[in-house]
């Protein structure tokens, strides 16, 4: 297992931080009782996605993030799957309600220094 080899080489310990539900979305369903319209996240929207991700990161971690540093992540996010905390039924239900399908579970593993 990767975590065991990594820990042995770097003198760390690992633990499962959270379990994530992985999703992919072959067809988007329009949300019920939500205004606005659907649009495909093309290259034209990469800057907007990067700005959103920078704002989200700042809100989540309390440190400012420059939107341009998020451009590589935004380009990938426009076409990749999604992950949600397995213990959060609300986010999982929202993803499923708009067409995301279960693609399995992923362990978010954290590494710490050995005591």
Strand-helix topology:
Elements: H1 2-10, E1 12-24, H2 46-61, H3 71-77, E2 82-85, H4 89-97, E3 101-113
Antiparallel strand pairs: 1-2, 1-3
What distinguishing features does this structure have?
about 120 residues; alpha+beta; three-stranded antiparallel beta sheet; 3 strands; about 35% helix; about 25% strand
Question: Quick summary of this structure?
Answer:
The protein is α+β, with helices and mostly antiparallel strands and 115 residues long.
Give structural notes.
The chain has about 120 residues and is of the alpha+beta class. It is about 35% helix and about 25% strand. The protein contains four helices and three strands, in the order H-E-H-H-E-H-E. Strands 2-1-3 form a three-stranded antiparallel beta sheet. Helix 2 (about 45-60) crosses helix 3. The model has no long low-confidence stretch (mean pLDDT about 90).
Structural class: alpha+beta
Low-confidence stretches: none
Mean pLDDT metric: 89
Question: What portion of residues is helical?
Answer: 25-40%
Output the number of helix runs: 4
Estimate the strand proportion: 25-35%
- Topology as a string of helices (H) and strands (E): HEHHEHE
Note the main sheet: 3 strands, antiparallel
Strands side by side in the biggest sheet: 2-1-3
Count of separate structural domains = 1
Instruction: Say what oligomer this is.
Output: single chain
Number of strands: 3
Ends: how far apart?
A: 22 Å
The general outline is globular
Query: How large is the radius of gyration?
Result: 17 Å
